[in-house]
């Protein structure tokens, strides 16, 4: 977006997910080190470690609220299309994604990064999605930024 954001968040994984990735990298490097020698183990550790961190950083979604709209994971929603929005807890997300849920929802969920989220209902008959559902570490800040930006 070219205008200044009123809110911006990058959903990196929690520390537990980072530890899991570290454990997998270590297991792989130890296995290769035992089979092919310590040099191969260190090379595998370096290569898979760099690759894992790069993939995590490149795939972490960005949530941004600006005067031009709401951006979630590269998709942009104009503020004029937003009817209402609300903070959703973990149980609410489970209900919205469970049996009988609307398959037309635009969904960007990262439960390993954030337990809560935001539901944005749309007021645009041309849009194939009736609502956007996405996780955020700070859903109240997202909704506050949306409210502040839409009231301008």
Largest pleated sheet: 4 strands, antiparallel
Q: Which geometry do the CA atoms define?
A: elongated
The parts where pLDDT drops under 50 for at least 5 residues are: none
Question: How big a fraction of the residues is strand?
Answer: 15-25%
Would you give the CATH topology of the largest domain?
PH-domain like
Instruction: Provide the helix percentage.
Output: 40-55%
The run of helices and strands is EHHEEEEHEEEH
Q: How many DSSP helices?
A: 4
Class based on secondary structure composition and strand pairing: alpha+beta
Number of strands: 8
Number of domains: 2
What's the architecture of the largest domain, going by CATH? Answer: Roll
The order of strands across the largest sheet is 1-2-3-4
What's the CATH first level of the largest domain? Mainly Beta
The average pLDDT score comes to 91
Radius of gyration from CA coordinates: 20 Å
Question: How far is the first residue's CA from the last residue's CA?
Answer: 18 Å
List the helices and strands and how they pair.
Elements: E1 7-10, H1 15-36, H2 38-59, E2 62-66, E3 69-72, E4 75-77, E5 82-88, H3 90-97, E6 106-108, E7 117-122, E8 131-135, H4 139-150
Parallel strand pairs: 6-8
Antiparallel strand pairs: 1-2, 2-3, 3-4, 5-7, 7-8
Helix pairs in contact: 1-2
């Amino acid at each position: 977006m070219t205008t200044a954001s009123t809110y911006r968040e990058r959903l990196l994984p929690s520390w537990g997910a980072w530890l899991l990735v570290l454990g997998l990298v270590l297991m792989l490097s130890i296995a290769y080190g035992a089979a092919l020698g310590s040099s191969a183990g260190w090379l595998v550790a370096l290569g898979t470690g760099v690759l894992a961190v790069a993939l995590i950083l490149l795939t972490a979604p960005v949530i941004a609220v600006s005067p031009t709209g709401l951006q979630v994971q590269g998709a942009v929603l104009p503020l004029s299309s937003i009817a209402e929005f609300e903070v959703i807890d973990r149980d609410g997300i489970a209900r919205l994604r469970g049996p009988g849920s609307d398959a037309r929802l635009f969904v960007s969920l990262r439960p390993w990064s954030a337990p809560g989220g935001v539901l944005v209902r749309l007021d645009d008959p041309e849009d194939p999605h009736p609502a956007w559902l996405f996780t955020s570490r700070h859903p109240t800040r997202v909704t506050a930024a949306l409210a502040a930006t839409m009231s301008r």
